[in-house]
Amino acid sequence: MKQVWEFLKQTIEKDTTIVLGLSGGPDSMCLFSLLLQLREEYRLKIIVAHVNHHVRKESDAEEIFVKQKANETGCIFESISLNFANSLNFEAEARKKRYDFFKAILKKYQAHYLMTAHHGDDLIETILMRISRGSNLNGYVGFSKLTKYKEYTLVRPLVYVTKKDILDFCQKENISYCIDFSNESDCHTRNRYRKNILPFLKQENQKVHLKYLKFSEEMNSILEYLQKTTRDALTKTMSFDKVNLHELNRLEPIIKKRVIEYILKEEYQDDIDKIQSVHVDSILKLCDSKKANGSIDLPLNKKIIKEYNLLYFAHKETISREEYILENGICLNEQEKIIKIASTDIEKSNYILRLNSKEIKLPLKVRTRKITDRMQVKNMEGEKKISKIFIDEKVPLRKRENYPIVVDSNETILWLPGLKKSKFDKNKDEFYDIIYKYEIKKEDFNEK
């Protein structure tokens, strides 16, 4: 325990408050004992935080045990009871709720440190499991002995020792603890690594956990360098909430990928576990695509959109397939509307439509596009696909599905407001008896 002692004394400031995640098992009870021995010298205030997962019949008895130990030592006891009856991903959900609870306790007592009892064997298991199932550099680090956040520092002092060291210490110091018999079950992946792989590694090298700690620290140093480089790259590629693809595609592949991972993390926050490597790979392919526009559906009803030289997030919009009778006008949304007017001095504008009612079938309607939509554009021979018009006019991808299209009752397309008019539009010196005007508060396109 010498390295643990040295690390604690170098890390902890005096006159401070520590929140300790205390399950009641040998690992956390060992750490609890160490902190109690430092309490007087360092004038520590220790908050015992216990999470009752209610997944084993011993859970309630363990909570009583931990509460009793906290009371006996004059420490504040805080607990939370969790319910995972309908959980599809117990481990991920439990971890999130556990750390949400810890953060709440840290804030309540204005504590500077959160301590957990992860040890050297845990680090080996974590690294090997992540290598086996696939991860990224953040995952291959395993976990750090010291992680600084804005409001607190997460500390894992026992990373220098093994489970055997902890059990020997508990026996020597006569420390009582609870035993979780589920740790013997082969149902859990971590248990299989613990029972089958760790003994072999330790047979090769009794101090192998320190080798893995060194590996983790080296990886963390590389990670810190890449994070700094990524932050520098972000200043060049990000503008508000959009990515400049020209700048992004000039980056080294590893930095480019990390920029994408960073913006995904910023977008998803605590739900980042919903993002998988296949999503990152798909986004990178989209960035490299020669197509001007494209999009990828992402978890939680989100999508990432490429529009020419820009990349950004959006929510999947519900595409309205309803048709509306135009008559005297219609409000499309808060910014756009089509109104019927009596006269106008404007001669040529894609924001004005003049019609001869005898050449079309009333009433007129406004709808969204269909796959087969074609239009006889004014002053052009033949028909042109609406999708091609959108591409030529550089209509943002997010606007295309809900772009208003004015048709008559025969489904003849008469007008794409603000973009193109059909051959049925009349010049000012021709006969017409219907005039519509497209108004938009903040114009996305110049008048044509």
Outline type: elongated
Number of strands: 22
The helix tally amounts to 14
Q: Characterize the biggest β-sheet.
A: 6 strands, mixed
Q: Which structural class matches the secondary elements?
A: alpha+beta
Helical residues, percent? 25-40%
Radius of gyration: 32 Å
Describe this structure in words.
- By secondary structure, the chain is α+β, with helices and mostly antiparallel strands.
- The protein has helices at 2-11, 26-42, 59-72, 90-109, 120-133, 137-140, 163-172, 189-204, 208-237, 245-248, 253-268, 277-288, 386-392, 397-400; strands at 17-21, 45-52, 76-81, 113-115, 146-148, 153-155, 238-239, 242-244, 293-298, 302-307, 310-315, 324-325, 329-331, 336-340, 352-355, 365-367, 374-375, 384-385, 405-407, 413-416, 420-421, 434-440.
- The strands form five sheets. Strands 3-2-1-4-6-5 form a six-stranded mixed beta sheet, sandwiched between helices. A five-stranded antiparallel beta sheet has the order 7-8-11-10-9. The chain has a five-stranded antiparallel beta sheet with strand order 12-16-19-20-21, with no helix packed on it.
- A hairpin with a 4-residue loop joins strand 13 and strand 14.
- Helix 5 crosses helix 8, helix 5 packs across helix 9 (208-237) and helix 9 (208-237) packs across helix 11 (253-268).
- The longest helix has 30 residues, at 208-237.
- Residues 443-448 have low confidence and may be disordered.
Brief synopsis:
This protein is α+β, with helices and mostly antiparallel strands and 448 residues long. It is 40% helix and 20% strand. It folds into 3 domains: 2-208, HUPs (Rossmann fold), CATH 3.40.50; 240-315, Uridine Diphospho-n-acetylenolpyruvylglucosamine Reductase, domain 3, CATH 3.30.465; 324-440, 3-Layer(bba) Sandwich (Phenylalanyl-tRNA Synthetase, Chain B, domain 3).
